[in-house]
Structures are given as C-alpha cells and as structure tokens.
Amino acid sequence: MAFTTEQLRAAAATKLHTITPTSGGGAATVDQLSGSAANIAQVEINNSNNASTTAYLKLYNVVSGSVTLGTTTPDMVLPCQGGTVITYAFPQQTTFSTALSVAMVTTGGTAGTTSMANSVTVTILQG
Predict the structure, then answer these.
(1) CA angle 127, 106, 72 (to 5 degrees)
(2) Each residue of 9-44: b (16+ CB within 10 Å) or e?
(3) Is the alpha carbon torsion for 45, 119, 59, 11 positive or negative?
(4) pLDDT 10s per residue in the chain (127 long)?
C-alpha cells in the first residue's frame, strides 16, 4: 500500500493521508498512519475501479506490527460498495488512543486478507 501525508493549516485537521492500498487480488497489507494517538475527522473511500466488489477499510487502534489480518479484530470497518465513492464524516472526531493502522480488503469483519482486484483510493483527514 502506498500513502502520502500532508500537513494542513486548518482548525479542524492537521494531516491529510491519501492511501492507495495494495491491489491485484493478492495478500493485503497493513499500514501504520500514526504511531501514537490519532483523531479522525473524515474518511473518503473511492472504490470506482471495482465495479462489483465492495471494499472494506479496516482501522486498528494498534501499531501495524501488532495486526494480523484475518485474526486481529478491527476497531472500525468502513464499507464502500463497488463502483462508488463514499465519505464518512465524524463531526466530533473519532479517537484512536494508541495508534492508527489501516488495511483494505474484500471481506468485512475480522476475516479477510485479500486485497482488492483494482486500486482503491482512501483519503483520511486526521485531526
């Protein structure tokens, strides 16, 4: 998975993460966006490249090395139907008190280790 982080000059957010998770239908990867506490204000998932497959963004409140995909229970799972773009807004922000790690897979819940067939772009606005 590739991602970029930008420092923002806004009252509501301090970082904008743009993530392109591993694709190709193989094993998905877990990426750590923050090694310490993080607040999330908004998440946008662009799954327009996968017409019929729902994408599931899994968010974990631990460092990436502590996540075993398919075994570690995510703290939050955000679905995005195939061929669509969805935005999740957290007006009061949601807090990950330890760290923020993410993975994009084809199965919701705890199960699922397979990456999407085609790229999905995720943008996370961190407060």
Answers:
(1) 65
(2) eeeebbebbebebbbeeeebbbbbbbeeebbbbbbb
(3) negative
(4) 555 665 544 445 578 888 888 888 899 999 999 999 999 999 999 999 999 999 999 999 999 999 999 999 999 999 999 999 999 999 899 999 999 999 999 999 999 999 999 999 999 998 7
> Which pTM does this prediction carry?
0.88
Asked if 15 contacts 96 with a C-beta cutoff of 8 angstroms, the reply is: no
Token output for 56: 């599931």
CA dist list (Å): 112 to 13, 16, 105: 31, 26, 6
